[in-house]
Design a protein that fits this description.
Elements (H helix, E strand, L loop, with lengths): L17 E7 L2 E8 L7 E3 H6 L12 E2 L5 E2 L3 E10 L2 E10 L5
Parallel strand pairs: 3-7
Antiparallel strand pairs: 1-2, 1-6, 4-5, 6-7
Length: about 100
């Protein structure tokens, strides 16, 4: 998804994130955030379970939050087909335990 900001004043800030609904695995996922500034896609474990706990691959990455905390993803949901506005894209999503403090 991309947006053409040319000719609009004021310009939207680069850090602006969009809160939308998408379809994945024949279910509507509410409160999806699209942020072009992120380095990876993440999904909460509760969302993953709601989607039917599809098979995950092992993740060898460590995620670092803006506050410096690090997290090891539960796994990677590879090639997840996500539908937005009638278009389907495939993304890799890292599943995290949202209860980490």
């Amino acid at each position: 998804m991309s947006f053409n900001h040319k000719g609009y004043d004021p310009q939207l800030p680069a850090q602006l994130a969009f809160l939308i609904q998408v379809k994945a695995l024949n279910k509507t996922v509410h409160r999806t955030i699209i942020d072009e500034g992120t380095s990876t896609c993440i999904m909460s474990m509760s969302c993953w379970k709601t989607l039917g706990s599809p098979t995950l691959s092992q993740s060898s990455t460590t995620l670092k939050a803006f506050d410096g905390r690090t997290y090891t993803p539960y796994g990677i949901l590879s090639n997840l087909q996500v539908e937005l506005g009638g278009k389907i894209v495939e993304i890799d999503v890292e599943v995290i335990d949202e209860n980490l403090e």
